[in-house]
Design a protein that fits this description.
Oligomer: single chain
Number of helices: 16
Low-confidence stretches: 36-50
Strand content: 5-15%
Strand order of the largest sheet: 2-5-8-1-9
Length: about 375
């Protein structure tokens, strides 16, 4: 089928004719145009994140209030918070409430190699470097009339910090290899989990850029400091999984208390991953305390017991509690091995042979447990 027939059959599509033999520069132009087309469409696709700021805590209420205050302005916003606290969700909320007609474009400064970051942000002209067979717009241009979210700004290389400061001051960019200044109408929102004032003292971040970015700072507290947000967040993640996968889940009161007592080093992202995991373990079922991974149960037990009880448990046995040894002696190694085998056997039975869950009950890694199952010939009891 020739080009004309294809165009009549698929009028919405774009076609390119390449003469044979195919020239590298011609092929490069087509590929670069395809890349640019996908790049232009990608920012408008909403990432699978929470659509709104979930939580009833005073901290989250304060964040929602700050977002509402700053959204309609053009002020640059700097969002601070640990990894996984939902900084991009806050940035998206600022964009959604801003009324800006352009797209939301996100770039993680720590995920792009330093030698590619400038081209990714500002674009490049044809011939600017090896492989630049056609001009390409950068993310700043793609975010025209919208919001540009620079995540992990604290990891941006020093040379790029200078160029970003110039963009913020002049509201123009220059593509790599170009000489023309291109005006951009972009709202900038930045985020970091790093202590930027400390990095300024270490000479790793420009002080003038810091003050230019933090016109309106927003601080997101870690999830461990707002346990009252755990339940509504879990409910939201469950609702999303029900919508996407048609799989329901309920969390019992005892399991929810354990989750609320947990320290959440991975913050909201860790909670989302846990809910997804529990849906696999108990599809359309009820999650109880016994279904939770060992670190959660252990953390809860430590919190409930308190340091004095733990110290007592770790103290050496008293004279009265010591087990007398038989006069003829016995094989301690064999005795301990039998106890270990019995405990593994019981754990496998209690978890229906699911090795991962048995490992969590025993507080060991899955690989370690698989090796012990093989050693004690318990393979038939597991899967």
């Amino acid at each position: 089928m020739n080009h004309a027939n294809l165009q009549r059959q698929y009028p919405w599509a774009r076609f390119h004719e390449l003469a044979y033999p195919v020239r590298l520069d011609a092929l490069g132009e087509v590929l670069d145009e395809i890349h640019a087309a996908h790049g232009a469409a990608r920012p408008e696709v909403r990432a699978p994140a929470i659509a709104r700021l979930i939580g009833d805590s005073a901290d989250m209420q304060s964040v929602r209030k700050l977002v509402k205050q700053v959204a309609a302005s053009s002020a640059t916003v700097l969002i601070n918070g640990e990894s996984g606290t939902g900084k991009e969700v806050v940035a998206r909320q600022i964009h959604e409430q801003s009324g800006r007609k352009g797209p939301f474009v996100a770039v993680n400064c720590g995920a792009i190699p330093e030698h590619l970051l400038e081209s990714e942000l500002f674009g490049h002209e044809r011939g600017a470097f090896t492989g630049a067979v056609a001009a390409r717009a950068g993310r700043f241009e793609l975010a025209e009339c919208g919001t540009f979210f620079l995540d992990e700004i604290g990891d941006m290389p020093a040379v790029m910090q200078v160029k970003l400061l110039r963009v913020l001051e002049e509201r123009t960019i220059e593509r790599v290899g170009g000489t023309k200044s291109i005006p951009v109408d972009v709202r900038l929102v930045a985020a970091t989990h790093r202590d930027l004032p400390k990095r300024i003292e270490e000479g790793k971040f420009r002080e003038d850029l810091y003050y230019r970015l933090s016109v309106f700072p927003i601080e997101i507290s870690p999830l461990k400091d707002r346990p009252e947000d755990v339940a509504p967040l879990a409910e939201e993640f469950i609702r999303r999984l029900e919508s996407d996968q048609s799989l329901g889940l309920q969390v019992s009161a005892d399991a929810m208390r354990i989750l609320e007592d947990y320290s959440w080093p991975g913050n909201v992202r860790e909670l989302a991953n846990l809910i997804e995991r529990l849906v696999v373990i108990r599809p359309n079922g009820v999650v109880t305390a016994s279904d939770l991974p060992w670190p959660f149960v252990e953390s809860h037990a430590s919190t409930v017991a308190g340091p004095q009880v733990i110290d007592a448990a770790l103290a050496p046995p008293s004279q009265d509690s010591r087990v007398p040894l038989p006069a003829e002696g016995f094989d301690l190694k064999q005795y301990l091995a039998k106890i270990e085998r019995d405990m593994i056997f019981n754990a496998l039975n209690e978890t229906d042979g699911v090795v991962q869950r048995a490992a969590e009950r025993l507080g060991v890694g899955r690989t370690t447990l698989v090796e012990k199952i093989r050693r004690y010939d318990l393979k038939r009891k597991s899967n």
